[in-house]
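Consider the tokenized backbone below.
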């Protein structure tokens, strides 16, 4: 029986976006591996060995394999579910699928560091037998900066749909004070959260909850501005649990996402599944993913942001049909649809009958 390895080593960061993608892959194979006509092997951190049932085979994502990849057993196919993993197949006979989420280093790095990242990424492209991107935007961006004759298939990210009942209210006292807006993401400059500071001064009737890692200089800058300018309706929570994210999605008045760089923009679809209005920038992939179901910002002037947020909330109150339309749109991004596309590629590369 043919053997395929799925690199889920990013489970070590399960609370980040890629970690959640890996977790949903694992849950899919826990449910379906037993009925497949190929062996499923999962590369996971040690604590996840055995966590996804007995129908999959486990390999520990030990650092030693990044130094001596030949220590891996032989696989017929290797799926790198993102472009950042340091694990790779050592045998040329092993076919590889490389999923590309973004090439943000082109915009974030400078000089020799950018060149180093580019060389590393180029080698990954050259090694892969099949390239997949998570959006048309990412595909176009890769072709612009790393032209290749290899076709790049677009497969949109899957979205985990969690029932409202699975949510747990975070321990954030201000949640009971007034209605709130919500946003989530690592507090880094590319997320552009600072544009909300002046906008929220114009919206005293709402609190803004921003969740995500705050271990950056950019986060410190935002904290300092909040304190210095006495902005009393913005709160940075740091990282939150998945169940807390579900609760915040379900109970916010609207979701605000002013990000500048997204390969996909997973939170946009996640919160849509709860029937909430989304106000987003139209940068990179967001216009593509949000389609006509998002209220897009034309600029980042505080007056415009405040106006667009109020417009979105008011539109949803006046037209309940928008809630259903957004929920139905979000349902198109299921993991079953996502994985069906990959299973088709797996079978093609393994030369198994369809």
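A designed sequence for it:
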């Amino acid at each position: 029986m043919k053997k395929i390895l799925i690199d889920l080593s990013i489970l070590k960061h399960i609370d980040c976006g890629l970690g959640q993608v890996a977790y949903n892959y694992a849950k899919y194979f826990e449910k379906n591996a037993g009925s497949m006509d190929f062996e499923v092997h999962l590369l996971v951190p040690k604590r996840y060995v055995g966590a996804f049932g007995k129908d999959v085979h486990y390999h520990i994502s030990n650092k030693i394999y990044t130094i001596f990849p030949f220590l891996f057993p032989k696989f017929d196919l290797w799926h790198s579910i993102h472009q950042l993993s340091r694990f790779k197949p050592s045998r040329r006979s092993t076919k590889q699928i490389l999923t590309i989420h973004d090439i943000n280093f082109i915009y974030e790095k400078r000089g020799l560091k950018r060149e180093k990242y580019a060389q590393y990424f180029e080698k990954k492209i050259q090694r892969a037998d099949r390239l997949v991107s998570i959006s048309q935007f990412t595909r176009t961006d890769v072709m612009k900066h790393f032209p290749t004759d290899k076709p790049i298939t677009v497969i949109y990210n899957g979205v985990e749909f969690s029932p409202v009942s699975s949510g747990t209210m975070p321990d954030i006292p201000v949640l009971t004070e007034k209605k709130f807006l919500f946003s989530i993401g690592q507090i880094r400059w590319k997320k552009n959260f600072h544009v909300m500071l002046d906008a929220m001064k114009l919206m005293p009737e709402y609190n803004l909850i921003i969740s995500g890692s705050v271990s950056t200089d950019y986060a410190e800058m935002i904290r300092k501005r909040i304190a210095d300018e006495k902005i009393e309706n913005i709160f940075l929570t740091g990282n939150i649990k998945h169940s807390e994210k579900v609760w915040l999605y379900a109970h916010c008045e609207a979701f605000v996402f002013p990000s500048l760089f997204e390969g996909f923009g997973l939170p946009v679809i996640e919160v849509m599944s709860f029937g909430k209005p989304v106000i987003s920038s139209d940068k990179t992939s967001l216009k593509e993913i949000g389609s006509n179901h998002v209220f897009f910002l034309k600029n980042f002037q505080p007056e415009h942001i405040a106006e667009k947020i109020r417009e979105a909330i008011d539109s949803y109150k006046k037209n309940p049909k928008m809630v259903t339309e957004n929920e139905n749109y979000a349902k198109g991004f299921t993991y079953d649809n996502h994985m069906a596309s990959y299973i088709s590629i797996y079978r093609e590369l393994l030369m198994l009958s369809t």
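The chain is about 40% helix and 15% strand.
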